[in-house]
Amino acid sequence: MVGAYVETLHNTSRNARIVLVLSAVMGLSIDGGIYSVIFNLYLLRLNFGPEFVGQINSVANLTFAFGSLAAGWLGMRYGNRRVMIVGMGIALIGALALPLGEQAPQAARGLWLTVTLLLAYLGLALYFVNSGPFLIRVTPIGARGAIFAVQSAISGLASFAGGLIGGMLPALVAIWMKVSMTQPAPFRIPLLLVGLLMVGALFLVLQTKEPEADEAEPEVLEAKPGAPRPRSAASLILFMSIVRFLQVAGVGVAVTFFNVYMDAGLHVATPTIGVIAAVARLLAVPAALLGPLLARRIGYGEAAVFGSLGAALSLLPLALIPNPAAAGFGFIGLLAFTAIRYPTFYVYIMERTPPRLRASMTGAGEMAAGFSFALISLLGGLLIVQYGYAVAFWLGAIVTLAGTALFAIYVWRQRRRPTVITPPPVQETTIIPPLVGQPALEKDGQDEKEI
């Protein structure tokens, strides 16, 4: 299996390899690595409580949501690569400016942190919404499952390293600066490191090139069960956005409040929180690489349902057992199942979306995810203050189960729908691509696996 993935990387395009390296840099820094461990703890050290943590994350995710909708339109109009570059530049400005909020007057500190975080999230929306369609465009159809699994694995490994770094750096900085871990300064330095890593990410995205003519995919949708006609594509985008809104609620509440819960609720040391977060990211790597193998056996849609269900159930230890070990176990399971759900879900919906509308589908999906994260962050912060952490985790689990059920019904109905393929004209030679989820789909990577 590993050899097949290595071969996939060897045969992929330069553009695709750059995007994979970018996934590593983003995973290490701002997309699950150092940032995910440090940021909320930094807010606590600045004397902000769980309610403000929920509010600032909610506003940031709303910005991501609206930015994602605009990013899809901008990608269609100006091209994915250009919007990726602009987005990375904006994210860089926000990431570098955010840690300077500690120097602002107390009355303006919350505003500074909010505005700079919004810039970072707006830039991330522009980048992520267009990086997926860009990677799809520069990857052959038969290798997509494998390349997105590799991307998820690389991001997971980088996030593992970032989690370890984020957990250890504050203690090391505190020793170096001779200050207490209750002060914000030991947490400011890792956040500045995130900004510096974003400089490298901007340099990398500038190294990409517009796809060559033979690299771009024809404007023809593959014949797969559930592939919509042009007039029904809008309804598919709307439906999948609703599914995404519901599915990611559990991830949203855990990513936002897990470290706050461990720190303020269970009084776990910061290095321990970093180790747990890092282990969770590391175990998500084999989960991501096993996703395509599962998808080839049961189908991409069914694999996504399995991952979503597992993510919802993983929240139960956090909701039921107020214990660091139980919370860590639930968080690790959540990220592992999410590593299965995201790439299989993404490939499933992209192969049912006309190529010219993929940026719109991605933008609408990321907007829905942003709204979900924003709402769950806001409600979670309020519920935690009034009723405790368990209620917030219960809410995430229930909403995720609702999204899982809705998507499962759709996948089941598509499985039952007969596939009608119109024979090509006699004078043309047409190759009908295989059905989604069948072994022939990844014939080139029979040993490989499918973020």
Automatic annotation (TrEMBL):
Gene3D superfamilies: MFS general substrate transporter like domains. InterPro entries: MFS (IPR011701), MFS_dom (IPR020846), MFS_trans_sf (IPR036259), MFS_Transporters (IPR050171). One of its GO terms (molecular function) is transmembrane transporter activity. The chain crosses the membrane at residues 18-44, 56-76, 83-100, 112-136, 148-177, 189-206, 236-262, 268-291, 303-321, 327-349, 361-385, 391-412. This is MFS transporter. Residues 17-415 form the Major facilitator superfamily (MFS) profile domain. GO terms for cellular component: plasma membrane. It is found in: Cell membrane. It comes from the Bacteria. The keyword Transmembrane applies. Pfam families: MFS_1. It is a multi-pass membrane protein. Keywords: Cell membrane, Membrane, Transmembrane, Transmembrane helix, Transport. It comes from Caldilinea aerophila.
